[in-house]
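ARCHIVE CARD
Drawer: 12
Card no.: 0347
Subject: one protein chain, sequence and derived structure
Cross-reference: see card 0346
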Amino acid sequence: MPKKNTTSNMRTKIANMNAARLKKMEGSPNIPASSVAPLSPVTPNVSSTPPTSNMSASRRKLAYFADVKAPTVQSTLPTTIVDLNCLQGLLQGVVCSDCGSSDLKLQCDADRIQGLAVPVKLYCGHCQSIRSQAYTSKKCSAKVFQHNRGIVFASLYAGIGYAHLAKFSEVMGLEMLTCQAFNDHVKLIEKAMSVELNSIFDESAEKVKAAYSESENPHNIAVSYDGTWAKRGHTSKLGVGVVIDVKTGLAIDSHVMSTYCQQCSTVGDNLKKSDPEKHLTWYEGHKAKCSRNFSGSSGAMEVEAAKKMWGRSEARHQLRYTTIVSDGDTKTYSALLESRPYKHMIEKQECINHVAKRLNTALRNLVNAENKRGVRLGGAGLGNLTQTKMGLLQSYYTKAVRTYNGSVQEMSDAIWAAFFHSTSTDKTPQHHKCPGGQDSWCFYQRSKAKGLSVPSHKGRLTTYLNEKVAPYVEAIYRKLTEPALLKRCLLGKTQNTNESLHGMIWSRCPKHIFNGLSRVTIGTAFAIGEFNQGSAATHRFQTAVGCSLSEKGARLGQLRDEKRVRKADLAIESNSKRRRIARQLAQTKENESRQVEEGGASYIAGGF
């Protein structure tokens, strides 16, 4: 029978999937049909349509690299785990060309096994002649077998180390690499991936410059920056800083820092105590491969990484990061101002999510502080502060900053509108700052615009604040509507992209396991590659380290990209956002009701 054309079948299947997806999305109010492009059945990219602002972040980022050439796919027999004993049955009826006997057998030379590369020879049991012999793996270099390199690469991509790989091999009955061989592969993989990551950064920087018009000055860009650590509590020995362009959402630089080197902590420290002069000689030979590239505190890693990346931005990408979106911590910004990497002034913009969290934190601190003084502002009671109400006020504050970021005054009016709306009663309605018109979110203004009688306030204000609570909350609002603060929110951006990337980094090198500089560097490269280019970046890394890409691997990567984009497209739909908010509020209310039944909070951090 003729061999089936699997590539043609796959093209047909993906075309049908694209048609169904396009038909579904054409009816969506948030995703225009023009922004939904069919996926290529060959390359693992997602869209060839130019990125637009109403796309999901994942679709937009992958669309920037729709024209990236995919690695060569080797269409051969699939790779699989084989029990060699099962292959004996294939030799039944096959005769030896020398003696005509059908007693051909497989034999393994145990002394020549190299990890997953097992030497197998076909010999005749009658005349004892060796018919053929080969290893079960191809070589990616003169001394390295592809399966050995591939299993190490796969374990690093999956976020597991040598110990977990050994357990996997134990259960599957596979030959296992030695720890030294595993570490040697890790070093070579780190070197190859670092080179490829720099190429990804260069390509991303070009996409960033192309996304800015000449009037916007494509060399002065706004970026979001945040540091992340391998361990909480500011005692981490490893930290990562990543710069992400605000407009495109692409990561364009990163820096991994480590205060720990195993050899320095064992051999070096002992030698330094016993023989300082010998230690100096030893360190000169060790310095080039030392994993300790930072000697400060864990908290200072974020600052130092920022200074490094801002200092090399012009030479590396011909870009100046003149606007930085960061959280309330001013140490990084102050350090950048002192280092003066550019002639241009660097402007700081606040992450609006972090600013909005200040409102929730201030309200919780207010309730706790006044409770100690005998003033009850929280808990049950009409108009008191509850966790649900605090969350809603934070949500309204965030929406006001994000929606009305055209000017400080508009933003301030929108924030105060939510406050005064919450303090209104039938006797003293305070809706003068609420937006008017029949489509207003305010029931009072909506009723007036429609010429209807204004309904009662009772039961209509989910964030109602009584006369006792309102003055305390007003004082907090005054601090959070200061013009200097709101001016730093005019960009209306968040650090959500950084937080998302941080999660991807630590999924490759989990925080509950100690990982050295090499592992974190590799994990960061994997995360940034996937973040910017999807599975195409992983396949680039795969071929760069010497592992060939199979047709099956390319298809699986493409399907993973499709799933990522579908989830992202769904998440930005208004209905999905409303469901998420409703679900969060329901969970908060349920927890509050349980606490009331239990007579108050059962656990307080730092309490007795």
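Annotation on reverse: The chain has 20 helices and ten strands. The first strand starts at residue 73 and ends at 74.
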